[in-house]
Task: structure prediction
Amino acid sequence: MTAVNEAKREFTACVLIIGNEILSGRTQDVNLAYIAQRLNTLGIRLREARVVADIEHAIVKAVNECRAAYDYVFTTGGIGPTHDDITSECVAKAFGQRYVVNERARAILLRRYANPADLNAARLRMATMAEGAELIENPISGAPGYRVGNVYVLAGIPKVMQAMFESMAHLLTGGAPILSRGVSAELAEGVIAADLTALQGRFSELDIGSYPWYRQGRFGTAIVMRGTERTRIDACAEELKVFMRRLGGDPRDEEV
Amino acid sequence: MTAVNEAKREFTACVLIIGNEILSGRTQDVNLAYIAQRLNTLGIRLREARVVADIEHAIVKAVNECRAAYDYVFTTGGIGPTHDDITSECVAKAFGQRYVVNERARAILLRRYANPADLNAARLRMATMAEGAELIENPISGAPGYRVGNVYVLAGIPKVMQAMFESMAHLLTGGAPILSRGVSAELAEGVIAADLTALQGRFSELDIGSYPWYRQGRFGTAIVMRGTERTRIDACAEELKVFMRRLGGDPRDEEV
Result:
């Protein structure tokens, strides 16, 4: 691959949120939005996410489908010590690897207990994973995450997941950071849609999203432009503002 | 199928959250948790969710994989009038149906505009869908959702999605409602894990989840038991409390 191709290459990712608590509605996931925003800055495009139940064949299937389809897969959840934490067995099975105690992970866990006997069989599961996994540091609660191939296995607790992500983010290879800009006006989507379609045609390398809003009895549309070149995003925003004004709107920049 | 088998049958569902704004981290999805909780009461098990980009082949593939695998598929997002709203074209394509103006939907939209010319080409897309689709009422903003086969196509805006869901929820066939109960104690997961595994073995028809928590400098574990028989859930909770007390905890019921 030439250097030019490498520079233009898109790096893609998928997030697998593993856990019945998300699918039962007990827990509101917040990990996806965190990872999504961090991947923007790293120049990695998050193309898909799946929420998977604590069912072995479902996890194995999702891991295998997604690691084949994307450059990076990030899993969250299911790496604790209890019977419903089955992510690690499943990842090992997906890779056809042995599921073994990682001695470095075991040593990390041992340092956390005053009495070595506290590292019981259940807790030792937090150090058991696919053979050859590379550990990801957990500065919050000790028990590490890890990487196998292109699959990064992270905790489900947001604070722990974020700390794990930050401890390995510098190892991820991405492209140019994905930049975005938002412009909003009190115009209905149906009023701006035709001009917006034409705008997307002229700026085909940008991802232009249209999001209607209602607040305090007023309604309008927020347009978000995403891409890697600031000058193109800004040129697009200027053309957008021109037709928004022509249609009677008062466009304003908006945080995205 | 005998009546007994029918009563025991599990009804399953998948949610497809369609939209780049979730994958970019701009928007925090809240539709999944709403649908999940409503499906519990309807006796339908939410087995999977996917967040899919606004990319035709990705949406078509997800719709086809999930409608084959689950009794119900609920999609959210991508049914507005702008260029990035491509859910309806994709659902029609997934079913191999023609993508046509639905005259009932067109009449609903026309009633919302003082001037018929306001129903422009972009807005007419909100009435264009797979041939033979059955409409789902939208009491908030007019433009309807619809059903094609076992796929229910709903809006992305939470208030609108919820209103659409409620206008058709009575048409969904499910099993016994899925009940849950939570018990929490200031005990580490690693301390209760072995007893919990044995408990899950004795109550194999229940789904027992274990969720560590940290609040105000204290830590503990919340156990959530889910199933369709209240007496079994309560019996499980009593056994759980017995071993939590034996391990030094003070178990308390907790909202789930």
Notes: Chain B touches chain A through 62 residues (CB under 8 Å). Residues 179-254 of chain B form a domain with the Alpha-Beta Plaits fold (CATH 3.30.70.260). Chain B is about 40% helix and 25% strand. Chain B has two domains: 3-171, 179-254.
